[in-house]
Amino acid sequence: MEKITVLDSTLRDGAQAEGISFSVTDKINICRALDELGVAYIEAGNPASNPKDIEFFKEVAAVSFQNAVLTAFGSTRRKGVSCEEDANLAALVGAGTEAVSIFGKSWDFHVTEILKATKEENLAMIADTVAYLKANRKKVIFDAEHFFDGYKNNPTYAMETVKAAERAGADIVVLCDTNGGCFPDEIAGIVRAVKAELGCEVGIHAHDDTGCGVANSIAAVSAGAGHVQGTLVGYGERCGNANLSTIVADLQLKRGVQCVAGDLKRLTEISRRVAEISNVRLSRGMPYVGKSAFAHKAGMHIDGVNKSSRSFEHVPPESVGNERRFLMSEVAGRSTVLEKIRRVDPSVKKNDPVTAKVIERIKEMEFRGYQFEGAEASFELLIRKQLGTYKPFFSLEKFKTIGEQRVGEDFAPAAAIVKVLVNGNAEITGAEGNGPVNALDVALRKALERFYPSLKEFKLTDYKVRILDSRETSSAVTRVLIESSDKEDVWTTVGVSRDIIEASLIALTDALEYKLIKDEERKVQREDTE
After folding, report:
1. What are the residues whose beta carbons fall under 8 Å from the beta carbon of 529, sequence distance 6 or more?
2. Which residues of 39-65 are buried (b: 16+ CB within 10 A; e: fewer)?
3. How far apart are CA 136 and CA 238, in angstroms?
4. Which terminal Cβ of the chain has fewer Cβ within 10 Å, N or C?
């Protein structure tokens, strides 16, 4: 099998994405996840840029990696300063990593207008820096910044920059589509031209500003690139970096190109773990690893997949560690309901009366305003109740919310008091929150954590409200969807009521029940394998 090396830049380029801020612990946990996946290089940050990265490189030195080479990132020496005098280069060497990524200018426009240097000075900066790092026994990855824009503007000079890096000893020369503005045919043609003139490994670093980050990376590999950079789930500047979870699966499953040393069946799990640590929701529609990547809604599609998965799936979901989902909706049929029942109880037969019971119950609840297409956890609970296998972990005896706000004054927090019963034991707890729903959420979990410590892992990740009949104005029926997660899964529940607090509480209670059911099932599975 052909092989390429992969560099993940989640901790460097990904950290530059809007809304992302990693702690030192976050960074180390992401390093461990990427190493498990088996990427070749982890670009972990710039040790000269901020105190957090300095602290990270100190702490990560004690971590042992099985597959990945930790890589520090920085720039070529400054204009008019020798390598020995450059504080940034001193920090890179002092970071103690086996490899270093260095970026330098390849677009003459940037050299003269941004750096305010001559073209000859820039070439010297590249060559001096690479040679200095090689003398310090570092593996050097040279990132030719803005290479494609530079090549289209002045191909001769762009080539001189990468040749300067190669002559100085660069192990890998990476061509960067820094502005993300190129198309696959342009990328492929320029990569071929560079490959014809360089003897070292050539890589690609693409951004997604035209939506072509993945396609550009694959085009580069097809044209001879042996190294690909990106971020595992596409985080990065502006529109993001090329999405490695898609690139790796595309190349490994479709092109027979080995990209990672680990098991590709862990791709979904590790991608979701990195998203969780980053505190950013993974797009449902993300190829291979998204929640909807193998979700089927139309009855014809579901029937086809049941007969042969190839009819509507380009790869088996288990090949990347994802799972097939059949969505409940008005276009789903009896076979969809039966398939979902069998996930809870595989012994249910095709003509079992319970299927008709479930369908009838769905109709009743949809008439009241429920919708289960986006709330599979609530639907699974419904099935368990119809099968008679539902076991409540707690009962909410009573609750009270308290809110007071004076007109024209700053927002004041709400409070909630709940009483729950668990196996005959009562717990009464109060909490404050940003509004009555948040206060109920905090109070309910606080009460239950005494009995179920695993709920400390539980958190709400999304909250949606929809008014079902706007003609009834403030007395209309409200549907609430709550998305929840723990360290292993993401699930959605639904509640419906004319009272938004009650609707929220129904969805929240379902979310907690579902979490506890799954915890119990995982515990049984672990015991069975021991």
Report:
1. none
2. bbbbbbbbbbeeeebbebbeebeeeee
3. 35
4. C
* Residue partners of 122: CB distance under 8 A and separation at least 6: 104, 105, 111, 115, 161
Kind and range of the H or E element at 515?
helix 500-529
Structure tokens at 196: 């014809």
Q: Give yes or no for a contact between 56 and 27, defined as CB atoms under 8 angstroms apart.
A: yes
Q: Take residue 357 and report the two structure tokens written for it.
A: 């019971």
Tell me how far CA of residue 172 lies from CA of 169, 225, 265, 394, in angstroms: 9, 10, 29, 58
Rounded CA gap, 103 and 122, in Å?
12
Helix (H), strand (E) counts: the chain: 17, 18
Give the angle subtended at the CA of 270 by the CAs of 51 and 242, to the nearest 5°: 70
User: What's the one-letter identity of residue 502?
Assistant: E
> What is the rounded CA–CA span in Å between residue 82 and residue 71?
23
Q: How many CB atoms lie within 10 A of CB 469?
A: 11
Say if residues 191 and 176 touch (Cβ distance below 8 Å).
no
Q: Are 56 and 50 in contact (CB under 8 A)?
A: no
Q: How many residues can be counted in the chain?
A: 530
Name the pLDDT band for 330 (thresholds 50, 70, 90).
Answer: very low
The one-letter code for the residue type at 522 is: R
> How far is residue 55 from each of residues 24, 40, 89, 102, 518, measured CA to CA in Å?
7, 23, 17, 20, 38
Q: At residue 233, what is the residue type? A: V
Instruction: Give the model's confidence band at 120: pLDDT under 50 very low, under 70 low, under 90 confident, else very high.
Output: very high
Per the prediction, the chain carries an average pLDDT of 91
State residue 443's pLDDT score.
95
Tell me the CA end-to-end span of the chain in Å, nearest whole number.
Answer: 36
Answer CATH for 351-393+456-530 from 3.40.50.2000, 3.20.20.450, 3.30.160.340, 3.40.50.720: 3.30.160.340
Handedness of CA 189, 193, 195, 196 (dihedral sign): positive
Each residue of 76-107: pLDDT tens digit? 999 999 999 999 999 999 999 999 999 999 99
What DSSP letter does each residue of 255-292 carry, written as one string? S-EE--SS-GGGHHHHHHHHHHHHT-PPPTT-TTTSTT
| Strand, coil or helix: 174 | strand
What tokens were used for 405?
């706000």
Q: Which CATH superfamily is domain 2-262 in?
A: Aldolase class I (3.20.20.70)
* One-letter identity of residue 206: A
Tens of pLDDT, residues 408-430: 666 678 999 999 999 999 999 99
CATH 3.20.20.70 in the chain, residues?
A: 2-262
Cα 472 to Cα 12: distance, rounded to the nearest angstrom: 51
Ramachandran quadrant class, 118 (left: phi over 0; alpha: psi -120 to 50; beta: rest): beta
